[in-house]
Amino acid sequence: MKPAMLVDTTRCRGCEACVLACQEANGLPRDDGAERLSATTWTVVEEHGGVHVKRQCMHCLDPACVSVCPVGALQKTPEGPVVYEESRCMGCRYCMVACPFSVPRYEWDSTAPRVQKCILCYHERVSAGEQPACAEVCPTGALTFGDRDELIDEAARRIEAEPERYVDHLYGLEEAGGTSVLYLSSVPFEELGLPTVHKGDPYPRLTWDVLSKLPNVVGVAGVLLLGVWWVTGRRDVLARVRGGELTMEEAMKLRPPLAEPDPASGRAANDDGSVLR
Amino acid sequence: MKNRALQYGLQTLRGRLTPWKMLFLAILSTGLYATFLRFTQGLGAATNLSDAFPWGLWIGFDVLVGVGLAAGGFVVAATVHVFRMEKYEPIARPAVLTAFLGYVLVIVALLFDLGRPWRIWHPMVMWNTHSVMFEVAWCVTLYTMVLALEFSPLVLERFHLHRPLRIVRRMFVPLVIAGVLLSTLHQSSLGTLYLIAPDKLHGLWYTPLLPVFFFISAVGAGLAMTIFESFMSQRAFGKRLEADLLQGLGKVIVVVLAVYATWRLLDLGSRGGLGLIFTLAPESVLFWGEIGLGVLLPMGLLALPAARRSESGLFFGALLTVMGFIVNRLNVAITGMAASSGVLYVPSVLEFAVTLSIVALGFTLFALAVKHLPVFPREELAALRRAGQPALAGGRPAVNRPVLLGLWGLLVLGLVAVGSSLGEGDAQGSGPREARAAASVPSAPVALRLPAPYAFPTGEESPGPVTFSHADHVDAAAPRCASCHVDRFRLDAPGALLEGAWTFERIHMGELCAGCHDGEQAFDVLEDCSLCHLEP
């Protein structure tokens, strides 16, 4: 099973029980009035024109944050949640730049700051087969935790049963290559503050397409540079032969000088330290 | 002894306290204060960075610009040692010195910007080969080592350490080639960093070709910086200007900028972005500032043999190229990200102070190196020594004043245009966003079905049964469920609304009904029993 969460915004009343449950479950300070995500509010219920939208980490199937983290502090667990290992993080904040949903938050006022975000209650609950605290407390059925494929079917059933109630789109099905948090809505998703992101290919492809070519670049450029260096060296030696400075036999014994020209004489020191004349 | 030293110090201070030195001291002291604040209170106290804008001036200028301007080091080194155009030898050492100092200062800046700078070594042992940042970290580390070795002959010669000098000389060409490869990788990878943010970076700058453009523009800017730095050395140390060499570099810059400008415009056209240039927006103004003033103008200037041969033409061609490069990197890192972030990031005074302090540190270190190490060719230093005094007055470039004024005027005009357009952008930016939010009236949210009235269990001495009605207690449009649920009445365990038993004390004196019905938030629960307990 691939754990996922379906957020049916048409069922959400904005009671914020999920917000408080999250704070309690993750040992975060209680904050009733949180309006947006912060380092101490990992989930929040935003209101957009009367519609309540629970926001949290989307737990992408192929997360940009995980791919960009230079030290592997963000990891996609085998079960699915994207978790953060504080002891590796050096605080470059590339994850915050890379996340298409702008979810990760930073402890700006700390001298040993951490990146903070929803980890889908991985350590305490989901890895033990339980559901996350937010899904458990939701009194209205707006949050459903379960297998991603089953939730996709469930969403399709709901849209089919009440087409006048839902926009015919499941946000997260293809967004950013697919996410573990899926949204149903009665209004277009861009009106809910959910970003319009690329669909289909996951984000890490954008950088991997370039990174994977680099070994070839190094190989080709390296050979090219060595070739240029060898040719220019040969050219200089041959010019000297033509000028009568060297005989061909002498020239054949010379290897192209592997040395910085000596600023004193303006001549290059040869391998054995002798100076070419 | 101590007194004399103090006296001497005061004398030199008093003797040389020029306005420039005062500015320098002001920057440095603000920088020190910023450093103190940054490392005792955190990034939030010293910077205007936020969750919506996590990378600011220190990444945009100190890192992206710093690395790019140091590109002269690998380009000139390759020209001299791989292409063996040995006439460029006299500018190789200053270029390598600039590059080495540049990279050291980039690392200093990173120590400010990283949230946990003491872990800067983590990418060396904790690998993620899919991360561009990981690749940049490795390349910058290795290239800084390469530069240290390329720079080392200056120190080794100075202290007559012949044996290590010979070892370094012998590995010099492989070092230069490794340097070129590492530079190619990370100069381009700084652009690759932004490929992961297609929705955040403005369409005038986001392109799959970002790595290519970052590399080409760094080559141009690195060469321009080498010219600029030669002029600076001439002013500061009275060094002879290698006019023919610098003109040669000027020609190369023309080619590089022409390739760059053509390719960028073609790429923009192929992605249907040409329309973006001609719509009046802060971004298009900045784009014109960058491409018009910072690429096309210097390209045209340096393409004219007359301008290239005049010192002021060469100087301004190089300066404009460097400025255009700086604007490009700041556009990618800061202004191009502004619209999508939804906030207006303006670096704090303390961020500027740190950046300027680092730049000042760079100039100081360069001057120290020139003074104590064989940076410039020997015969020239000998000539300087013979002359006794640096030929400051005689070495000044013969600047054509009208040209100079005109160019500075253009620069100021460009800056004013950019500044005012940014201000406008801010005013406009918030407008449509709010308007759209207000206009988005949802298609009738489904009405809240409140739970049915709930009859509390009745005790033996109760004056009558109590039935709780949600309809009387909450506004269905804005129910604020959590004010009672979770804390007083749980919802997470079906059937177990309350932990423990319903007791008179908990209801009337404790946290249940009396929690709100205390005479202040709502009527007192003990005021009148019949308000809740209805006759059976």
Structural overview:
The complex is a heterodimer of chains A (277) and B (536). In chain A, the strands form four sheets. A three-stranded mixed sheet of chain A has the order 8-1-9. A two-stranded antiparallel sheet of chain A has the order 2-3. In chain A, strands 4-5 form a two-stranded antiparallel ribbon. The termini of chain A are far apart. Chain A is an alpha+beta fold. Helices cover 29% and strands 13% of the residues of chain A. Chain A contains eight helices and nine strands. Chain B has 536 residues and is mostly helical. Chain B folds into two domains: 11-85 and 92-427, Formate dehydrogenase/DMSO reductase fold (Up-down Bundle); 448-536, Cytochrome C3 (Alpha-Beta Complex), CATH 3.90.10. Chain B is built from 22 helices and two strands. In chain B, strands 1-2 form a two-stranded antiparallel sheet. The chains are: A alpha+beta (277), B mainly alpha (536). At the A-B interface, α1, α2, α3, β6 and α6 of A face α2, α3, α5, α8 and α9 of B.
Q: What secondary-structure arrangement, pairings included, does this model have?
A:
The complex is a heterodimer of chains A (277) and B (536).
Chain A: E1 3-8, H1 17-25, E2 44-48, E3 51-55, H2 64-68, E4 74-76, E5 82-84, H3 94-98, E6 105-106, E7 115-116, H4 133-137, E8 143-147, H5 148-161, E9 181-184, H6 204-211, H7 214-242, H8 248-253
Parallel strand pairs in A: 1-9
Antiparallel strand pairs in A: 1-8, 2-3, 4-5, 6-7
Chain B: H1 2-15, H2 19-41, H3 43-46, H4 57-69, H5 72-81, H6 89-113, H7 122-125, H8 132-158, H9 162-170, H10 172-192, H11 210-237, H12 243-270, H13 274-277, H14 282-303, H15 305-309, H16 311-341, H17 349-372, H18 378-387, H19 392-395, H20 401-439, E1 454-455, E2 467-468, H21 470-473, H22 504-508
Antiparallel strand pairs in B: 1-2
